[in-house]
Amino acid sequence: MRNQRILISGAGPAGLTLAYWLRYYGFSPTLVERSPSLRIGGYKVDIRGVALEVVKYMGLYGRVKDLQTNMLGASVVDKFGQEIAQMNGDTFNLRISQDLEIIRGDLCRILAQQIEGMTCLFNDSVVAISQGHEGVEVEFENHAPQQFDLVIGADGLHSTVRKLVFGHDSCFAKELGLYISIFSVPNALGLHRWEMEYADSTKLVNLYSPSKDQDAKAAFLFASQALRFDIRDVQKQQQLLSEVYVRVGWEVPKLLAAMKQSKDFYFDSIAQICMSHWSDGRVALVGDAGYCPSPVSGQGTSLALVGAYVLAGELALAKGDYAQAFSQYEKQLRKYVEQNQKLGRNFAKNMTEGHKKNLTVWLHDQFMRLLPGRWIKFVTKQATRRVGRAANAVVLKNYTALLNQ
Ligand SMILES: Cc1cc2nc3c(=O)[nH]c(=O)nc-3n(C[C@H](O)[C@H](O)[C@H](O)COP(=O)(O)OP(=O)(O)OC[C@H]3O[C@@H](n4cnc5c(N)ncnc54)[C@H](O)[C@@H]3O)c2cc1C
Question: Where are the domains of the chain?
């Protein structure tokens, strides 16, 4: 049963890793990706804890390390641009030991090189899924229908497979009360492997560049009551962002002016995907599609890599019994996922409650006023401990060794 035909929707970190392992175990995976080609570029993402084991099992730790962002450090500034704390890049981004940071597109490129020759239907999407006793009939937007043994949705936060098989986004998306916008801007401050961050209680602005010869990326994160916005109306989204940040100092007015010329403007609400089960018959979900922890957890990429590794390994161990494999996959990962999602929810809670007048907020404000540098370093250290615990909250099986027994 190992040569089962498996369709993977989405060629991001989860889909590409799953494709690699499925082929390694002797399955026949096919990818379908909505973009016309592999999505390269993007923002920087972290690989932490047990996710590093997955990268090592694939023999890719050295390659990822070669392409890591290698950020030297970060400055936290006040509204006048005065530095109030400085940290090295790893400390600032809550990384320890061998943890790595890499541009999402560079990671995808490395992963895609491992599955050369595999069929990938670019510029296409699944539009209908019909399950039967013998397999799954799949209809595509641009290709002829095909039959597969299994279908895996690795198509991200707004997964089409999830919508078609499990239900509308609103059934599973837990909004965290935060909004994010990221776009490229000219590197006017000449940042070189350096990032800068300004934050008040409910708004944060981060600016970084991997090199003084490259554009910088500006990221805006803010807490707000539910906002209505059309995902396709970039002009309205930009207007909204300008209104939210109208009285914020530092470089913000210049960044908002540069936003209008930016070609990669991104805006979305911050949400998690919380589901009681990640499979239905012959269809399962992996990565953000099934259990997005949100960008503010910093753990989305690690969950995608670990999820793909475990799903493929359990399918191989179960020798074609997909129901058993899907059940084991959930059993292995449920607690790990929940612990990492909790990181995202706690971060969001701190920001959304930033305007409240309670003791915790008052104490935070006092420390920020009196000892901002020390307080930021203390808070960062505590957060690193929590992230480290969650990033290691599962023991991975060595599937290759188990299969060779
Ligand atoms: C703004 C932002 C900042 C982030 N920052 C961090 C960070 O600092 N650290 C971190 O670890 N993580 C971060 N993340 C999260 C991280 O990028 C994701 O959690 C991770 O990429 C999940 O991988 P994935 O493969 O599950 O989904 P994705 O990376 O979303 O990949 C899904 C793929 O599916 C494709 N697709 C979508 N719909 C379809 C369809 N209908 N048919 C076919 N293909 C489709 C997409 O084009 C994409 O290639 C951030 C995310 C965002 C949005």
Answer: 5-69+98-173+273-353+385-403, 176-271
